[in-house]
User: Fold these one by one.
Assistant:
Number 1:
Amino acid sequence: MKKTVSTLLAIFLLLFLSASGYTEQFAKQHTEQKNGKSIALTLDDAPRSANGYFDGKTRSEKLISMLQQKNVPQVAFFAVTSRLDQEGSERLMRYANAGHIIANHTHTHPDFNQLSLAQYQSDFLTAHEQLKNYPNFRPWFRFPFLREGNTLEKRDGMRKLLKDMAYSNAYITQNNYDWYLESLFQHAVKNHATIDMQALRDLYVDIMMQGIRYYDEMAIQHLQRSPKHILLLHEMDITALFLGDLIDQLRAEGWTIITPEEALMDPIASYKSSALFKFNPGRIGEIAKNSGQSKGLWHTSLEESYLKQQFNDRVIKTVKELSTAQ
Ligand SMILES: [Zn+2]
């Protein structure tokens, strides 16, 4: 009799647990551990111009509340300080006060291929002075266009300056052309095209996931493991609109969102490319190139013609012709 009671109790307990979604939750956690893939989110060019779909204030408020809603406590914003007018400064401060990291992305967003070492260093230092007192400032540098110097003198000169100032090179492992999707979107908004927002959301998530899977596979091929990834994003309207959906998709595929600080603890953070890059595909591409891979350093989802075609086919529903776009 006693045995029957405990068996019944066990059955009830099991029914209760599965009804409460506990087992599902457990299975999901288990998959995440097994998958072991992790990624940090970083947004460049803050405060980026905002005069299309959202104004700057709306964009930043949407970004902050979306990250909160999705339980992502910390991302990093890489600031371009020449854009810190009153509205821009307020926007950057809003991110800092929400607990996000503020870091250096130069004063004027120059192309290192076009500047001397001295000019570039001075641009970097101007930004440092303007940012160093922000709450949550970190001495992290994101090279604009990921260009780290096209001569040995420039590359090693910046490496030395970063070291002397106790800065980290905040590389990315996950490259994409999200900024190009944004420009197609803003152009369509300006031209009053009929935009299918659901389709735009699907396209954004689809394009970003294509790149993420691709660079993770490339990393595994060369490192025999999935490193802690750092995703390149930009402080833009499509990010404010759809980053939440991308986060959902990442989690559905077993990824864990980590802080940028945690990502920078991966051993690849101290990797120093021996090859010089005029155009840099990101750290996974650097590692691949140094171990002999010469093709496919930029994925198809980073091709403007591909993105434009996808955008026109999938997102613009009634106005087919966007021949004047970019
Ligand atoms: Zn940038």
Number 2:
Amino acid sequence: MRTAVAIAIAALLVAAAIASSLCAAEIPQGERRSGYSFMAPDSQAIQNDDTANPGMLWVLDGEVLWNNKAGAAGKACADCHNDASTSMKGVAARYPVLDKTLGRPVDLQQRINLCRADHQQATPLPYESHDLLALTAYVAEQSRGMPIEAGTEPELEPFVAKGRELFMQRQGPCAAASAASALKPMTTAHRNWSSWSFI
Ligand code: HEC
């Protein structure tokens, strides 16, 4: 009986070792897939058609906000950045970027809020609020179809390493790592959780 338990434990340890070595490996470039490819065909169809994609409502709201004057400076985004289709082209595809003043990376929402605070002298918008998401969606729309490029500054390295560690870590009730999910075909439940993407 004791031997059977020992064998079972040994088998579990071997399985855990195999699982952790799989997680530790990088996903080869050729096997990396966009979240779009995990979507059910009906969700893909919605995303393929701008008139059916509810995410485009945020883009339209973002365009209105882009032209609205705000804050003590009484300036709109457009007053400094003019036509977003030119000034914001390719911007979202580069984010998150290193903010040299803060000494850490900032994502697009944080970057927009820095402009709210520093350049419009307005209260930063709550993270994930309707207006901040709308402005972010509108700015991101200007990079539609462009490849995402990560920054290569050495100061970014510790943040990338931490991100890699979190990506590989198993967490949550399903003990699923993002890396493991990206390697396996997703279940219908996973596919139904797909979020909208604008670029
Ligand atoms: C008074 C001028 C001014 C206003 C108003 C302003 N910005 Fe900016 N923005 C700047 C400047 C200057 C920079 C360059 C970084 C810096 O110096 O802060 C910048 C940078 C940015 C960037 C980063 C661009 C890049 O290439 O990485 C984004 C995105 C951005 N602004 C979006 C917005 C949005 C959205 C609004 C309106 C909510 C806005 N800005 C309002 C002046 C302004």
